[in-house]
Amino acid sequence: MSNKNNSENVAYNELAIRYNLSVVEYVRTSMAALSGCTAGLLGLTGLYGAAFYIFAVTSLWLMVLFKAGFKTWKSYFISRKGLLTNGFFGHLFTYILCWTFIYGMVHVY
Amino acid sequence: MSGGILYRILVIVGFMSLFHSAYSAAQHRSYLRLNELDFLGLPLDISIQAILSLYIIVYGILQVSGTFKEIKASAELDNKSWGTFRNIPSFYMFAHRGKAFSKFYNPVMSKSYLEEVE
């Protein structure tokens, strides 16, 4: 109980939070574009592509947690669930754009 | 945007590898078309190369994109002492009257000396 109270009263440095999230956003955008390219290259169609996107997002999440340290991530991010779900659908469109483009480049023409 | 040159090279190598696998896939596709075969999926080596190079690029970008900062507000202050916070440059005093107690102090009595300094 006392531990819970402690975590509620922590003062955060907003600039550092924003900086960390912008780093993650940068990496996620690149990941969406690149995994879209890879999905198009592999010739995935339909739900396989969506499954590949979920796979890519989850593995990126694990890589970010690995970079922050699996035990020390709490000193860099407030919640790691938010790290996984933030901008999921926003980046999905980037992913689909690259996916269809590279699929057309490699497999159609 | 910190990060070693090593990771930048890693990103470039990954991009080249991804492009190479894309080219291989396109060539495989044209080979199938010329022989009038059906597309049953890419050869395993091209798929493995594509996924591996994706991971190489993402790992490189993750390292290049910069280090995370501690989000606790007190994180930057932990290594500083109280003396740092009490240091106020506006209140520095270079002409303290206490120097009159020194043995080597010889007072300037005339006012004209002050005017010469200025």
TrEMBL record, chain A:
TM region(s), chain numbering: 50-70, 82-106
Keywords in alphabetical order: Endoplasmic reticulum, Membrane, Transmembrane, Transmembrane helix
GO biological process: autophagosome assembly; protein folding in endoplasmic reticulum
Highest taxon, organism lineage: Eukaryota
Assigned GO CC terms: EMC complex
Keyword Ligase belongs to the record: no
Location within or outside the cell: Endoplasmic reticulum membrane
Disulfide bond listed as a keyword: no
Membrane topology: Multi-pass membrane protein
Main location: endoplasmic reticulum
Family: Belongs to the EMC6 family.
The name this protein goes by in its record: ER membrane protein complex subunit 6
Organism: Henosepilachna vigintioctopunctata
Lineage, broadest ranks: Eukaryota, Metazoa, Ecdysozoa, Arthropoda, Hexapoda
From TrEMBL, chain B:
Gene Ontology molecular function, alphabetical: inorganic cation transmembrane transporter activity
Keyword Coiled coil recorded: no
Subcellular location: Endoplasmic reticulum membrane; Golgi apparatus membrane; Early endosome membrane
Keywords from the UniProt entry: Endoplasmic reticulum, Endosome, Golgi apparatus, Magnesium, Membrane, Transmembrane, Transmembrane helix, Transport
Bilayer topology: Multi-pass membrane protein
Main location: endoplasmic reticulum
Highest rank taxon of the organism: Eukaryota
Matching Pfam families: MMgT (PF10270)
Function description: Part of the endoplasmic reticulum membrane protein complex (EMC) that enables the energy-independent insertion into endoplasmic reticulum membranes of newly synthesized membrane proteins. May be involved in Mg(2+) transport.
Entries under PANTHER family matching the protein: ER MEMBRANE PROTEIN COMPLEX SUBUNIT 5, PTHR21181
Family (UniProt): Belongs to the membrane magnesium transporter (TC 1.A.67) family.
Protein name: Membrane magnesium transporter
Organism in which the protein naturally occurs: Henosepilachna vigintioctopunctata
